[in-house]
Design a protein that fits this description.
By secondary structure, this protein is an alpha+beta fold. Helices cover about 25% and strands about 20% of the residues. It has a 3-stranded antiparallel sheet with strand order 1-2-3, with helices on one face.
Length: about 70
């Protein structure tokens, strides 16, 4: 999958921020552009990683493939 990432340099903090608009709250930062890019790649992987769900015993879980 490919995601858009917005990279911005902040001259006040002398650091870079990275935001993935398609994944709310998925952000990263770094002292260099490369650090911010690496951080957002990891943040996206973690954002998309499956996690344990506490569901009722009668709940049905299915998987959906997109793309």
């Amino acid at each position: 999958m490919t995601f858009r990432v917005v990279l911005e340099y902040d001259p006040e903090t002398l650091s870079w921020s990275a935001v993935c608009p398609e994944l709310p709250g998925c952000t990263s930062a770094g002292d260099t552009e490369e650090e911010a890019r690496q951080g957002i790649e990891e943040a996206i992987r973690l954002y998309l990683a499956p996690s344990e769900l506490d569901l009722p015993t009668d709940a049905k879980v299915v998987e959906v493939m997109v793309g």
